[in-house]
């Protein structure tokens, strides 16, 4: 199986991903409506209803199972990119199921119940842990960044930008900096432990675009002066 990602974004167009499957390859595509071109036997695509948990988390009814040999092209909306991840035997990362675009045969998914405080901020009761030999594709806003955790020196990451983190990481929901800084930021995860954390770097692009536009001096002042003004004033 070969996956080619076209990162050129001409005129605001999104990313194009080309999948080339050989005999016995099988991919499970969770956003089949993004497939815009297909070459191969018609019988290579087999659409199925998702299970109840998949419908709830992805807000989708249908997934596609595609077997090789064939080739197909998926188009992603502007601002979205796909990250291909090769699973390793010792992987202990917990993922948000909503970011999953595809997974290959040989990949097994395990449900991990979150702690109550984590449920409240992520609005999801479970995370997914993948095991086995194969690949998964993650759909993200902007590029995917990877940072190593440290047992004692915390890493602060925007809570809404997290894609995956080690199962045994220590998490604390917080803000940081002085009073003014902490009042004008989203909640962050204060993370320590071993392993690496994945997060998306484009989630706040829309806010920067708003700041660059002329939205009025009075509104900008209110956002800066009122505690948590960036969150309360849209």
From TrEMBL:
Q: Which Gene3D superfamilies match?
A: Mitochondrial biogenesis AIM24
Task: Return any one Pfam family short name.
Answer: AIM24
Q: What is this protein called?
A: Biogenesis AIM24 protein
């Amino acid at each position: 199986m070969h996956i080619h990602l076209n990162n050129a974004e001409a005129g605001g167009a999104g990313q194009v991903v080309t999948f080339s499957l050989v005999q016995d390859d099988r991919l499970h595509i969770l956003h089949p409506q993004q497939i815009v071109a297909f070459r191969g036997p018609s019988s290579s695509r087999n659409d199925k209803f998702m299970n109840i948990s998949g419908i709830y988390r992805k807000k989708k009814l249908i997934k596609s199972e595609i077997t090789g040999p064939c080739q197909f092209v998926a188009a992603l909306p502007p601002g979205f990119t796909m990250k291909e991840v090769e699973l390793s035997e010792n992987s202990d990362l917990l993922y948000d199921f909503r970011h999953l675009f595809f997974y290959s045969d040989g990949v097994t998914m395990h449900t991990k119940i979150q702690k109550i405080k984590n449920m409240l901020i992520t609005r999801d009761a479970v995370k997914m842990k993948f095991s086995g030999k194969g690949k998964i594709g993650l759909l993200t806003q902007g590029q995917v960044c990877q940072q190593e955790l440290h047992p004692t020196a915390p890493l602060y990451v925007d809570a809404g930008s997290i894609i995956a983190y080690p199962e045994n990481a220590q998490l604390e929901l917080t803000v940081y900096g002085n009073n003014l800084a902490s009042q004008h930021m989203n909640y962050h995860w204060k993370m320590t432990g071993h392993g690496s954390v994945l997060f998306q770097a484009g989630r706040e692009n829309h806010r920067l675009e708003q700041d660059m536009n002329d939205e009025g001096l009075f509104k900008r002042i209110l956002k800066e002066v009122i505690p948590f003004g960036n969150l309360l004033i849209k």
